[in-house]
Amino acid sequence: MMAPHHDSDEILISLLREGSQQAFAAIYNRYVDELYRHAKRVLVNKEDCEEILQEVFEYLWRNHQTINIKSLRAYLYKAVANKVTDHLKKGYLHKRYVEHFQLFEAVYSHADNMESVEQIIESGLRQLPERVQMAIRLRLTENLTNDEIAQRMHVTNKTIENYMHQVYTHFRATYSLLLRAHS
Length: 183
Fold this sequence. Notes:
- This protein is mainly alpha-helical.
- The chain folds into 2 domains: 9-90, RNA polymerase sigma factor, region 2, helix turn helix motif (Rna Polymerase Sigma Factor, Chain: A); 110-182, Orthogonal Bundle (Arc Repressor Mutant, subunit A).
- It has helices spanning 9-17, 21-40, 46-62, 72-109, 114-126, 130-142, 146-153, 157-182.
- Helix 4 (72-109) packs across helix 8 (157-182).
- The radius of gyration is 25 Å and the shape is elongated.
- The model has no long low-confidence stretch (mean pLDDT 81).
């Protein structure tokens, strides 16, 4: 059988469900460039775009027998968009975790013992608004999630996110000055 490169998407989907590697290759060749451009509009890194496309097409092949696709183009665009969104979320979260780690690393590196760390944190917290202090204390002492803190404080999750951002911004600014002073 010749490669079904010129067949309609519906035919390619049907052949793909039957396990046709040629149909899969035709789908890949038909859409890979435009999907790459679609991902590249948001992501700067070429390797990230390529990795996302690989994940999308691997998923398509692994699930070719059970996948339910009405519009191939729409399905592929949506899959790429979802992967890009997931990638951005992971990158954002990773960045925030690194920043938070660096913040607390700065506090701990300037403390001689645990009591000193607690004093530094307590001193920094007293400079913040009362509700922000309450939120971070619930996080630190009871290890509550943002949702749990929001329920306990009768505010929205977004409010708690803002409180946490205030805390980390305050400590980052305070202890970056401390770091420069001790450098």
